Amino acid sequence: MYTLVWTASFTRTAGKFLKQHPELREKFATILGDLEHDPFQPHLRYHHLGGKLKNIQAISITSSYRLTLTLLFSDQEIILLDVGSHDDVYR
Fold first, then answer.
1. C-alpha gyration radius of the chain
2. What letter would DSSP give residue 2?
3. H-helix or E-strand spanning residue 16
4. Which of 8, 10, 21, 46 has CB 3.0 to 4.6 Å from 80, enough for a Cys bridge?
5. What is the pTM of this model?
């Protein structure tokens, strides 16, 4: 089991995201629960990013929305960084 670490920036962004997309509230909560249990579940579509985001990973919430994170294996921690549309989180 992993520990989710909510950064201040992620907390603000997640609040705005859920206010704009209330229909995704339940799915978002489910995704976070699944991520905490096992980030490598196939339906999360966990993947490493490249380029300027080289040390960051992402998972899919839907085909249009992503959640970016950093996974620290030594501490079993997942640091949540950003949530939003594909274009927003990969900026």
1. 12
2. P
3. helix 8-20
4. 10
5. 0.89
